[in-house]
Amino acid sequence: MMNSTWLLTWIIFLPLIGMGVLLVVPKKIIRETALTFTLATFILSLLMIPHFQGSSLQISGKDYQDGFKLVNVVPWIHSSGFNIDYRVGVDGIGFPLVLLTTLICFLSCLASWNISKGIRGYFILFLLLETGMIGVFTALDFFLFYVFWELTLLPMYFLIGIWGGPRKEYAAIKFFLYTLLGSVLMLIAMLWLYFASNYNGEHTFSFIHLSMPGVLPSYASHQTMWIVCFALLYVGFAVKIPVFPFHTWLPDAHVEAPTPISMILAGLLLKMGGYGLLRVSYPVLPHAGAAHVVAWVLGILGVINIIYGALCAMAQTDFKKLVAYSSISHMGFVLLGIGLLTEAGFQGAMFQMIAHGITSAAMFFLVGVIYDRVHHRDITRLGGLAGQMPIYTGLSIVGFFAGMGLPGLAGFIGEIYVLLGSWQAVVLGPMGARVLTVISASGMILTAGYILWAIQRVYLGPPKPEYANTPDITLREICVMAPMAVLSIALGVLPWQTVFTFANGTLVHVLKLLPSG
Amino acid sequence: MNIAYALIIAFLLPLLGFGILVFFGRRIGEPRAGYLAAGLIIASAIIASGSAVSWISRGQENRIPVSISVPWIYVGSQPVELGVRVDSLTVVMFTMVTIVSSCIFVYSIGYMHGDKRFPRFFTYLSLFGFSMLGLVLANSLLGLFIFWELVGICSYFLIGFWFEKDSASNAAKKAFIVNRIGDFLFFVGIAIMLGMTGGVNLEGVFAKVREGVFAGHGSLLTFAGICLFFGAVGKSAQFPLHVWLPDAMEGPTPVSALIHAATMVAAGVYLVGRIFPVFTPTALLFIAHIGVITLFGSALIAIVMTDIKRVLAYSTVSQLGYMILALGVGGWVAGLFHLITHACFKALLFLGSGSVIHGCHGEQDIRKMGKLHGKMPITSITFLIATLAIAGFPFLSGFYSKDAMLASMLAFTWTHGSHWILFILPSLAAAITAFYMMRVYLLTFHTTAKDEHIYHHAHESPKVMWIPLALLAALTIGIGWFGAMPERKAMGGGVYTYEGGRGLVGLIAEAQPRWAVSWQMAENLKSEKGEVSHQVFHTWATIVASSAMAMGIIFAFLVYSLKLISAQRMAERFWPIYNLLVNKFYMDELYRATFVAGVLKLAAMGKWIDKNILDRIADGSARWVVRWAFFSGLTLDNRGVDGAVNGAASLALAGGNFARKGQTGRVRNYVLAMATVVAIVVLVAGFVVR
Amino acid sequence: MIETILFYIFAMIMVVSGLAILVSTNIVRMAYWLIGMLLAVAGIYFLLGAYFLGVVQIIVYVGGVAVLVVFGVMLTSRQLASQLLPRAWEVVWLICVTGIFLAGLVRMILKGPWAGNVKQSPQTVAEIGRSLLGNFIGPFELASVLLLVVLLGAAYLARPRVPTLGIKK
Amino acid sequence: MIEVPKIYELYQIWPVMILIVTIALILGSSLSVERKMWKYFLTAIAAVGLSFAICTAGRLMPVALAIKLSRPQELLFGKSIIFDQLFLFMVIFLCVFLFGVIILSAVLWSRSSWEWPVFLCSLVGSLIGMIFLCSTRHLLFFAIAFELASMPSYVLVGFRRFNTKSAEGSAKYVIFGAVCSAIMLYGISLLYGLSGSFDFSTISFALAAGGVGVTKIVALVCLLVGIAFKISLVPMHFWCPDAFEAAGADVAGWLSVASKSAALIALARFVQILHLSGTAEFNHSLMLTFTVLAILTMTVANLSAYWQTSVKRLMAYSSIAHAGYMVCGIAVLGDVMGVAAIVSYVVVYMLMNLGAFAVVGLVERETGSDDLKSFAGLGSRNPYLSALMIIFLFSLVGIPPFAGFAVKWIMLSVLWQHNLSILVVAILANTLFSMFYYMKIARAIYFEDATLPAVKFPVLASVVLTICAAGLIVLFIGWGAMNTYSNNLITAVLG
Amino acid sequence: MIGLTHYLVLSAILMVLGLAIIISKRNAIAILIGVEFILNAANLNFIAFSRHGIGGISGQTAGIFVIVLAAAEAAVALAIFLNFYHQISSIDIDRGNQLKG
Q1: Which pick of B100, D200, D252, E80 has the fewest CB atoms within 10 Å?
Q2: CA angle in degrees (0–180, nearest 5) for B278-B281-B287
Q3: Does the beta-carbon distance from E64 to C48 stay under 8 Å?
């Protein structure tokens, strides 16, 4: 058993080691090597599970600051006014996301098998991306968080830009621009918060310290700082989530990215935004988060995301773009759940992140499978695949219905939690929350609409002669899809055991940090 | 307690079947997949029947409702449990569902013979069986909702089973989406309930409602009730969400029988029955009116339909409207009793029609049939039994249940005179029901054979298909016998007790809520009319129902058998009405023109906004910059927008292009620019700063 | 008195030569006007009692720089002068800028709190020499490095083009 | 009163003496060594000379420290040279940089003819100029050092003879430079008139007396024109793109970092002195001036850069923009942290710019053009080189995990602490703008198809580039140490 | 009586004239002439100040250095112009317009 202090560090940097190894291995075993490293990372991340067993107090700690496990602190920069540590750790919020990351990375590495162009570069960037993402989900120091946050930018840019579709350049630069815009704003907030903080007489970057009362100047006297910082951070995260109107990068990036990268993009990268809200915005700036205006803005934007995303999805004829817009719609639930500050909403948002991580990755993979075979994604030209590819269709049904929020599958739990939570939200007054809830619940209808319509147009209907010889899904593809399908069901049936038991306590702690209790 | 566990086992058996079939279905193949699924559902029917027998044999004082829950999740800090509730209604429903399912599973083995996706069919059926039983057993709103969605999705799969047909996949999609609209409001109702009462467990919710948590929230409870009811509206195909059900007939006939006649569509009624205590009088009135609109409208449409399954579908909608109406006017027992009897005879009707279709090689148009009685006698007889039952022929099960419903309606109108329509229209519809059902029967099995080809090739169905028919016919005849409503005793505060019920209806009546908001509120109002004996209503209802039935049947004979009145001429004379009915009151067209087109327009708009506005907002500002630059006398060449990504980008780029124009390449201009700046500084320094 | 007259004469020469250069289109004439200006400056130096500097001005500037300029002129004078007129907008702009500039500078000069305004007696060459190798030893030494490096570079650049002479693009 | 220099003063500027001797040796041996051996032999001499200078400067560090402890400030050669750690630091920094540049030049150009000694001498000559430029407060000395830094640069830009661009660029450069330095000299004369001295601290005391006046402003502005020309601040930046495009990549790299850094440090010294004696009002307007200059510089440069197709020109705009970022550190008056941030920035900037220009040079050597088109598909033409270029570019944008981010971060935090949030916002907005054109290069390298032949990557160059790239990563991880070092350095010198 | 101001104004005129020449002349050598004007203006300042009791002898010493600088600058500039002329075949500095934008 490895020393658990360094376990997280190993998890974070193992892909980086793999990247170094990839530089030197011969070309024929690059894929295998990369897969080995992602698998090893996944297995290593499973070693975290024993630390999250036991009573809820053991899992979540007695308060927010107490809840971090596997914390590893190495002093990094302590000079001339800077207190920056290499500080990593996981709590109930980070832990499921780290697991999700390592799993989805492994699966999408497996899904990358038919990448043929420049595979060395591809897998090097891939592993770099994995390190960046795990880093984001584990960093407990704002500076480190930012570094990892940006670290995901570079590989993603090239992964889209080099291995992407016809409009890859446009998509890549758009992705880059939006994300950089967000992170630049985040940087301002970071500066502001750091130099305003006072922890035992020193400035601090540590999320743990920043979340303690009294470390930042009081809300009463520094309202502007709180609200503006919250807004800056929000934009940074909103770009990633992505929230209307910062979402336009997403359809382009998703559509142009190669399938495995779309999986990561939708499954993991978007989660960085929601995670950021839960890890940074609310714990560090609780009073701002509890402000009415903030709740209203987040709530309304969440609703817009849900409805608008669904409507846009409905209008698409590109299958992948449809799925991309469905991500926007689904991530609206995350925003709504977080924004309205109820326990159920927080839980729902957290669950939705995990569930969407799996279902959207699955959906993108499914779209990729069909794209590999017929080389287009035009829904209007597809049709009748159910007859030709029964196994594929079956798996697709699971994936898409999970996305649709069918009870018993993963998408359902997150949505109802968010909606039930937002119904009870007190922060918007009695009517506001209810109106928002009703509107967003009507998104259920739209979701069913576009997903069923898509299924009908793609899988159902009379078989088309041009797809008569389309081979069914291969064993490798089943290996990619099966875990996601199983998890979709497992999450839907046993949500408590799979997610909430880890996350719930921490979410409650986060909520307790907020002024209303 | 043991019964609960027995039922849980019975409930899980179809899931087992589903699990096996989904992975190995293809390997098991036809017909073993059918045997497996049917065997499992029969097993669960046996268990259910055993449980029912043991339940009935207990004696009324021992038939205490049982509720078992396991913690599932916590929504916020409110625990949400999944559990089962076993009372008389559950037992009855469960037994009915399993038995009808068994019949239909068996029947399907014959009906689906030779279909290339035979195993898949039974996979779905098994999943449906599981879901439906779960729905029956669920003891919480969330549990109901989950299985509610699951049966919906099974319905989706099964309607679209022959997905190669566009009509089938369209119908499947339509069914699910229309249901989703109901579910959405159902969900809102759940959210209200959870928010107000802190739980979703039915008993907990009722208790909280009774405690008065809704006091001071205006008509929120009414609203919540109506929202919850809309779940039923969707699932039970009530106006205005009834449009999916006739289309759902695209599915294989056993599916129509099982899901779209006997069980799933009745789930809405079951739901209303289950959550009856939370409905306020206003909500109930709303429910009643929805029911009456549905039952009358669809009965009218059924007259003119020519597709045998569509007639039955509209008849189903109509009958469901009866049940909803009955519940709405407070006839809880009558509504649910009719649910059970209807399940039997409607399943029988559908299976019979399936047998006819099977025998006629897929022909569904009754105008092309005729004289089939000789060719398929068993089908004919069972179909006749069912027809008479639905028409309310004395001593068949439908007679008892329809009588009970009409009685409750009459009772309601008696006390609420202004709502006389709630009795008049159902009575009229009873006649219409008898008429159109006889029409179908006569056109199909008697009169002349219009299509020789069909007639010649028609044949009786195999044994595996007619044995279920016979079984269901037996049930149709017998389940209403020996019934007696229990005595209802008011305990004050809207609480009642029931004693002395007999037969099936008595059993159902035992499960009747002991308390309901509406009763409580009704008690607070002084009833202006005096108390009239229940028996009086029954008597009058029997008279009305029987005469309506007789009128309908006679009229049908006149038109179709004796041909004294020409249906053709009638249609011509009343052509506006006829057109209206043939086009189902133009509901589909209305929806297509408003909601479907509206949503699609919105969707297109969203896409357009994304593409043209959000992406171009700053493109536009860039263009402004360019324009401004032109005005200021500098030419800005706009080449190379290839790299311009969007928005702020192009603004910046245009700005950059503007800025770099300063770099003219002529060094004297550089010096001039620099000198200008210095001169300005000198000017400012010399003449502005002191 | 004589100083005043001389001053104005020299000043006139300077301004006139400057203006002449401005309006002239002939580079050779410009070079001669430059020499005139430089000589006038040397004259002003004499007026200011900086005799050594005046001499240096004549020797180095007039004798060196101006001759260098004249050489340059002769080496590059194939160009037709009339082509080399500035653009009209440049001239307008130029007049504005220089007008502002001059006004600002004059105002500045009039306002400036100069560190002294008392005429001193002329300094001797010896003092200059001592200062050059005393307080100004740093600049002095650096200037030598400068000259070395600069001349090296200038020699490199000014060397005639070796093989491709005569081939025009 | 005349002060006579003492002999130990010579010892203290020993590194520079070595450099002067190096010039002499180069010239001398060019006379005695066979012409075809020049490239190796003379390069070796230059390398040895630079190494010696670096070593001696390192050895002198304790001396500087000791002097600092005993005397307030050590001025050599008639108060012209400030001898302190910063002086030695700049010697080391510039020599190391020049070392890299010379290696690069040797790799890039096959100069076997007689231009090689002239080239080396010009480089070393401008090096000497830059060293003194940033370590003096004697304005006349400053002017001469300024010219010593500039004039060889003019020559270097025009060094690619028989190249029209080069001739044009150098002509423009020399005209612009001559005008700027002449205006600066005029300003110096005004300052002299105001104070009767060339010593800047005396001058600043004279300026402080009697409040702000038009003369003082004009004089200072004229001085600033010269310095801003060296730093290439808008509107004195015009020479920069033209000269860089004209020059060889090595020369462009040298100019982009060395002259800017030297002039920045000089500016920092002057502003420090001014600030100490200035009134609050004066200091405020000083701060305002540099704030405006910084914003103007970075914005104009970043906006202009996008449309460039010549990568050298693009990098020139990038260097202007970076000058804008760096000059923000000057706007933080009264806190040496700002200058320390500049020092850190300069070091990192040296690494990334040397690297980037080296890549440009290698591509240009192969394709004969520095156009973006010649970068098309570099990713497949030379993967390693491309990967390094990406590191440099991302570092230039300021994205972790490269040191470009760290120094930007240091700068931002210093600015933030001094409530110059407007500059913080400006820098960040410009980071966004700048992304476009850096990504343009990245796009050409990776997203376009290769049509041109592979690019050779000589071992020597690869070593230099790898060191640069590794340095960027190492300095990111260890930016705390770098920051501490520069803070200590600047605190000791200016604090 | 001719005072400091006179000399300074004269030098200012020289300065402005030089600037005007630089900006208006397209002939590179004429531009160089303009630069010489400015340098002479500076020099004139130095010597005038020195004469009027500011800074003692150092003004004149500075004058010498300025002359040296001017000479060096002229040498370099002329060499560069010669090179320019050889490459572009024109002394018109505006003809060098490859580098712009």
Answers
A1: D200
A2: 85
A3: no
147-186 of B, contacting A, C-beta below 8 A: 147-150, 153, 156, 160, 163-166, 168-170, 172-173, 176-177, 180-181, 183-184
- When divided into structural domains, chain E yields a total of 1
Domain contains E101:
no
Kindly state whether residue C59 falls inside one of the protein's structural domains.
Answer: yes
Q: How many structural domains is chain C composed of?
A: 2
- Write the residue in B649, B653, B671 that is nearest to D179 by C-beta: B671
Give the whole-angstrom CA distance, residue B333 versus residue B504: 10
Classify the C-alpha dihedral B351-B355-B356-B362 as positive or negative: positive
Query: For the segment D276-306, what is each residue's pLDDT rounded down to a tens digit?
Result: 888 888 888 889 999 999 999 998 888 888 7
Q: Do A406 and B195 touch (CB under 8 A)?
A: no
Is E101's CB within 8 Å of B671's CB? no
Give the per-residue pLDDT at D3.
Answer: 63
Question: Nearest-CA neighbor of D492 among D82, D131, D127, D201?
Answer: D82
Closest partner residue to B679 (CB to CB) among C100, C107, C111 is C100
Q: Quick check: B489 pLDDT over 80?
A: no
> Which ipTM score applies to this complex?
0.85
Domain limits at E34?
4-90
Does B touch A (3+ CB pairs < 8 Å)? yes
Q: How far apart are CA B315 and CA B298, in angstroms?
A: 7
Distances B391 to A398, B471, E96 between C-alpha atoms, Å: 43, 20, 103
For the beta carbon of residue B543, count every other beta carbon within 10 angstroms.
12
Residue A5 token pair: 């202090």
CATH assignment at residue E11:
1.10.287.3510
Residue E16 belongs to some domain of the structure: yes
Cβ pairs bridging C and D (under 8 Å) = 118
In terms of domains, do C15 and C93 share one?
A: yes
**Which CATH number fits the domain that encloses residue C18?**
1.20.120.1200
The answer as to whether E23 is a domain residue is: yes
CB A49 within 8 A of CB A164: no
Q: What is the DSSP string of B36-53?
A: HHHHHHHHHHHHHHHHHH
Q: Is any Cβ of chain D less than 8 angstroms from the Cβ of E14?
A: no
d(CA D466, CA A460): 57
Residue D262 has what pLDDT? 94
Whether A and E touch, i.e. at least 3 CB pairs below 8 A, reads as no
- Residues C138 and C94 occupy one common structural domain: no
- For E18-69, what is each residue's pLDDT tens digit? 999 998 888 888 899 999 999 999 999 999 998 888 888 888 899 999 999 9
Specify whether C147 is located in the same domain as C71: no
pLDDT of D320 strictly over 90 = yes
Residues C135 and C87 in one domain: no
| Same domain as C139, residue C70 | no
Cβ proximity of B3 and B86 under 8 Å: yes
In a domain, residue C141? The reply is: yes
Residue B570 amino acid letter: M
DSSP secondary structure letter of residue B78: E
C163 is a domain residue: no
Helix (H) or strand (E) holding A218: none
- Quote the CA–CA distance of A254 and A262 in Å, as a whole number: 5
| E14 falls within a domain | yes
Question: D214 vs C104: CB contact, 8 Å cut-off?
Answer: yes
User: Which residue reads 């090239």 in tokens?
Assistant: A158
- Establish if B49 touches chain A: CB-CB under 8 angstroms: no
Whether A328 contacts chain B with CB within 8 A: no
Q: Residue A465: how many CB atoms within 10 A of its CB?
A: 8
Q: State yes or no: pLDDT of B128 exceeds 60.
A: yes
Tell me the pLDDT band of B661, cut-offs 50, 70 and 90: confident
Q: Which domain holds residue C33?
A: 1-101
C10 and C88 housed in the same domain: yes
Does C13 lie in the same domain as C46?
yes
Q: What is d(CA A417, CA A513) in angstroms, rounded to the nearest whole number?
A: 21
Is residue C61 domain-resident? yes
